[in-house]
Amino acid sequence: MDKIKSQRAVVLASGRGSNFEALVRAEKMGELFPFQIIGLISNQSGAGARELAKTYGISDVLVDSTSFKTPLGFDRFRYEKKLLECLNSLKPDWIFLAGYMLVLGPEIIRCFPKRILNIHPSLLPKYKGLRAQKQALEAGDKITGCSVHYVTEELDGGPIILQKSLAILPSDTEETLSERLLPLEHQTYREALQLIAKELT
Fold this sequence. Notes:
201 residues; Rossmann fold; 24% strand; alpha/beta; 7-stranded mixed β-sheet; 6 helices
């Protein structure tokens, strides 16, 4: 087992970082071998994930998306160019999206083919994009869940690695449902990486 090449991973996150922290804790407990989380890149200066990265001694890189706003909107080309420079400097084998609230552009996806993973809070192909739990509640669904999938140029449309489901309670709001789903997201991401690890070894 010691001869297996370590798989360097960078996490992209925009928010508080609960999935990021769950991945880091699992890695430190030896549950994600051969994956090694070597860096965090965030597009938000105040993202909680950045403080978590410091706590765990993980490289923290900021590519502030607000710095790429222009009178005409968001300059995605310049932002993606800078993001790709940062990724290349860290030399990851894999990219894990964990609450990353921007859509990755085609150039980055093509640079890491079938090496970018995302966790999405729905049973894909249902409810792609933002506020999946709100969509599930408005549709009157009785079950929701989460999906770990490969990232492709189709939004939330890449091949699914693992899904897990959760019952929706009559009392659930978007906020309570999202909170109840988080532990399941953590478990599903960890188990999806373990499945990929088996293929690598």
